[in-house]
Design goal:
Outer membrane efflux proteins (OEP)
């Protein structure tokens, strides 16, 4: 008992000593902990402050977001913008006056006792070309029409490429709907295959029926793979049009839905002829050709050059020591009166008129075709929504239940599944075509449809 008590006392003493040691070490441990925490936080802060150039892997885009990204990054649109800048540069050039011309000379004689030091004449003139007959004004007018035509070309590129963005966006949505339908069919028949494999082992169905189910699963799996490939192709088209990185993934938020519109054909045609940027560009080109023609006719009149000058002679020169000159230079329009330029200007006007008429006819027909196609696709969508989709789903559900109870054969189930799948896919295609036709009509008119 005494030995046990002594051991207990020693243990208590060692515990008290350990506690006193830990108490003395607490400030140091706390200091080390704070330093380590500060270093870790600084390292994390340094990592957070480092700039990253990585492209976001996932972009969540509505249709308007995709259009905004397109306006910001599309390279074709940037090229069209450069066309406007080029035209503005030409407009600046058209406003400039001709540069003055400096002419200088030295005359001397080396005969009959003359030399360079005794008989030398220095002279020079500065002449300025003055354009007559309104040439500069016509040139400025032509350049202004060129700038306006380039701006119309930019708006037309925006019209056409905007349709491409919208079409690519909903092409992705259509492909995703296709993939969802294909995966649903594959999963359904995969479960059917699992159940019927057990039924086959128990002798409830024949081997032929099991093979048919297995082949149908393979067929649906093939459809899934094809749908995945179509989706990746559609995503690639969208990445290209918005100038996104190949690794960028999209989460598209604007769903493919049906919204009925009933536009008026005559009103759309009138609107297209008034506001379509390509038609405006052709009209501006015609105006520019008219200004060019007036400029070509003005070139029949020569432009004079006028400027002062001065000559300095040596002390024994034949005339006065210094003389002043006023020079006038006028080209004589004897042979070249810009006959060819005038003919080219007349032809350019007729060509611009024909091009404008062609564009007007093309715009009318584009609006008419887009309208007719839209009406037909709208009718098809409404036929599916009138009950065909529900009938296909109900038929498949009924036959599936009947097959499980032995009321129908596997051939009936497979036929119902294929029919329901075809109806759903055709509806998605019809809905996608309807949405695309809306965008096509908007592009043909030159404005969005409400």
């Amino acid at each position: 008992m005494l030995r046990k008590s002594e051991n207990s006392t020693d243990t208590e003493e060692r515990g008290k000593e350990l506690k006193r040691t830990m108490t003395r070490m607490q400030p140091a441990v706390l200091l080390v902990f704070v330093i380590m925490l500060g270093l870790g936080t600084g390292a994390l802060a340094g990592q957070a402050d480092e700039p990253t150039n990585e492209v976001p892997r996932i972009l969540r885009l509505t249709l308007n977001d995709a259009l905004a990204l397109f306006l910001k990054q599309n390279l074709d649109l940037l090229i069209a913008q450069y066309g406007i800048d080029t035209a503005k540069g030409q407009e600046i050039t058209a406003r400039l006056f001709p540069n003055p011309v400096l002419t200088s000379w030295i005359y001397t004689s080396m005969t009959q006792g003359h030399n360079y030091a005794r008989s030398t004449e220095y002279g020079g003139t500065v002449q300025q070309l003055f354009e007559v007959a309104g040439k500069r004004g016509y040139r400025i007018e032509s350049a202004k029409f060129g700038t306006q035509s380039a701006e119309a070309g930019f708006r037309d590129a925006l019209r056409q490429l905007g349709f491409t963005v919208k079409d690519s966006y909903f092409h992705v949505q259509t492909a995703r709907r296709h993939l969802a339908i294909a995966e649903e069919n594959r999963d359904r028949f995969t479960k059917i295959l699992e159940v019927n494999t057990l039924r086959y082992k128990k002798g409830f169905i024949s081997g032929v029926d099991l093979i048919r189910i297995r082949l149908q699963v393979v067929d649906f799996e093939s459809t899934v793979i094809q749908s995945q490939q179509d989706l990746q192709s559609a995503l690639n088209d969208l990445r290209i049009v918005v100038a996104a990185d190949p690794d960028t993934q999209f989460e598209l938020l604007t769903e493919l839905e049906y919204h009925r519109i009933e536009p008026d054909l005559r009103s759309l045609q009138r609107t297209a002829l008034d506001i379509r940027p390509d038609i405006q560009g052709k009209r501006l080109t015609l105006e520019q050709r008219g200004a060019d023609f007036k400029l070509a006719k003005a070139y029949r009149y020569p432009d004079p050059s006028i400027g002062p000058g001065m000559t300095l002679q040596g002390p024994t020169g034949p005339d006065n020591p210094q003389q002043y000159v006023l020079a006038l230079t006028i080209p004589l329009p004897v042979f070249n009166r810009n006959q060819g330029g005038i003919v080219q200007g007349e032809v350019a006007i007729r060509a611009a008129e024909a091009d404008l008429k062609k564009t007007l006819i093309q715009a009318k027909n584009e609006v008419n075709l887009a309208y007719r196609t839209l009406v037909q696709s709208r009718r098809l969508v409404e036929v599916y929504q009138a009950g065909v989709l529900d009938d296909a789903r109900s038929s498949l559900s009924i036959i599936d239940t009947a097959y499980q109870r032995g009321g129908v054969t596997i051939l009936d189930l497979l036929d119902a599944a294929r029919t329901a799948s075809a109806i759903q896919l055709n509806y998605v295609d019809a809905l996608g075509s309807y949405q695309r036709n809306i965008f096509q009509l908007e592009s043909a008119v030159g404005k969005e449809l409400s």
